Amino acid sequence: MSISFVPVKSEARYFSGKILFDRDKLVIKKIELWIENPKTDQLTTINESVKISPKEIKLEIVFNPMDLEKIQYLNFDFSLTYEYRATTEIIESHSLVCFFPK
What is the DSSP-derived secondary structure letter of residue 8? Predict the structure, then answer.
């Protein structure tokens, strides 16, 4: 079964998401969270002439199908706009963390 959710207010401070779970076993199989153009006050640069603005954050947590109490992997994507004088770049970061059993 899948449950999706979106914020009631689109203030860019709340995540949308989806939770996939096994209804019979009452366990979560996967969690997805995402937000576009989030408003953040904590992300700053050392150089005051540089402006950075987060564009998108995505987090995916997938649980091990053989043992649903353990995480199989985390997938984290982050993108931001970097502005310096007349230059604007989009920087993207993609991270995958896999967990292997002993």
Answer: S
Closest CA to 62 of 26, 15, 20, 102: 20
| Cβ-proximal residues to 50 (8 Å cutoff; 6+ apart), any chain | 82, 83, 84
Integer-rounded Cα Rg, in Å, for the chain is 17
Tell me the C-alpha distance between 42 and 52, whole Å: 11
Query: pLDDT tens digit string along 65-82?
Result: 888 889 999 999 999 999
Tokens of 72: 């199989």
The 3-state secondary structure of the chain, one letter per residue: CEEEECCCCCCCCCCEEEEEEECCCCEEEEEEEEEECCCCCCCCCCCCCEEEEEEEEEEEEEEECCEEEEEEEEEEEEEEEEEECCEEEEEEEEEEEECCCC
Given the structure tokens 């002993």, which residue do they identify? 102
Q: What is the pLDDT of residues 38-60, one digit of tens each?
A: 887 777 778 888 988 899 999 99
